[in-house]
C-alpha cells in the first residue's frame, strides 16, 4: 500500500477534513521535518538553560561580578545590608545622602530601614558624602539638572568669564593708578571702568550683572586707590550671583531644548515619595524596631514636604521651576537626612569637599569576611555601573580611602 492510499483510508475513517492538508507524501515529509526540527530546538533550549545556569554559578563564585547599571544595583545594596550582622561594621562612600531616592523611592527607604536597624543595634557605620555647596557637590547637581550640551556650555562660559575677570582686574588696576596720578574725576573713571566691563563681559552676562558691578564700584568709592580696593574686583556674593545667572541661563536652555524630557525629569522628582509603602518581609531585616519604622516614616514625610515646597505638585507649571529651586531642595533634603542619621550614635557622618573616585558600600565582617558593592562612572554608560566583590584588595582600597577621609576631616575641623 502506498503512503498516499494509507492516509486516504485513515482520513475516511477518523480524521475528516483536517488531514486533507497533508494527504500527499510531500506534505507528510514536510510535517515530519517540522516535528524533528521542534524536537531539536527544544533540546537546544534545554541545553541553553543548563549553560546559562552553569554560567551563573561560575559568576557567583567569582570574587567580583557585574551587577548592572544604576539604579539596578540598589537592590543589591539592600541585600548587602540584609546579609550584615550586628557585630559587623559598615563603610559607605557616596556622593549624596539621598542616593537612589529619586530613581527608586521604595529601595531607598528599604535601605534606610535596614541601615538604621543595624545602627540601632550598635553596628559602627561611617558615611562619607559631598558636603553641600562644595565644588564636588555643586558639579554633581549641575550634571543631574543640565543637559550634556548645556552643562558643557555652562562650564566653558564660566571658564571664559574667569579668564576675562583676570583681564579686567589687570586693566582696572592700571586705570585706577593712572587716574589717581592724573587727578581724573571719579565720574570719568567710573565710565571708563563700566565701558571696560561691557567690552569684556557684555557677550557673557546680562546688563543687570554689569549694573550690579557698577553699584559695587560706587559703594567702594571711598576705598579707591587703597590696597584693599585694588585687590578685589567682586565680592563672594557677587561671584555667586554671576554663577547663578549662568546656571539659570543654561537650565532654561535645557528646558526649552527638550521640554518633554524636562517634564519627565520633574515628574520623576515629584513622584519620589514613599506612598504608604508596605515593605515585604523579604526586603526588611527581621529585627527592625517600631522606632526605626517611625523614624523612616517621619523622614519620608519631611522629604516630601521639602519636595512640594520647591518643585510642587502637578498643579505647578514646570516653567515656574528655577535652578535654585532644585538646588535648595537638594540642600534641605541633605540636612534632613543628616539630622535623622545623627539620632543614632553609631552612625558617623563625614562630609567631604573632595571628589570621591568611587561609590562603595563595604561590610566588614570578622566572621564572614569583607564584601562590598562598588559603583563606577563609565564612558560607555549614561549612569554608574555596579559590581559586587569579596576581593580583599578592594576592601583594603576602601579602608585606605576611609583613613584618608578621617585624617582630612579632622584637619578640616581643626581649621574651623
Keywords, please?
seven-stranded mixed β-sheet; Endonuclease, Chain A; 10% strand; alpha/beta; single chain; 3 domains; 416 residues
Radius of gyration over all CA atoms, rounded: 32 Å
* Helix/sheet category: alpha/beta
CATH architecture of the largest domain, by name, is 2-Layer Sandwich
CATH fold node name of the largest domain? Endonuclease, Chain A
Oligomer: single chain
Total number of helices:
14
Whole-number total of structural domains? 3
Q: In what range is the share of β-strand residues?
A: 5-15%
* SSE series: HHEHEHEHHHHHHHHHEEEEH
The end-to-end span amounts to 104 Å
Query: Largest beta sheet, briefly?
Result: 7 strands, mixed
Low-confidence stretches: 6-28, 221-234
Strand order of the largest sheet: 1-7-6-5-2-3-4
**Overall geometric form:** elongated
| Helical coverage, percent range | 55-70%
Helices and strands in order:
Blueprint: H1 3-15, H2 25-61, E1 64-69, H3 74-83, E2 89-93, H4 105-120, E3 125-130, H5 135-145, H6 148-181, H7 186-201, H8 207-219, H9 227-230, H10 236-257, H11 259-270, H12 290-310, H13 323-341, E4 347-352, E5 359-364, E6 371-376, E7 385-389, H14 392-415
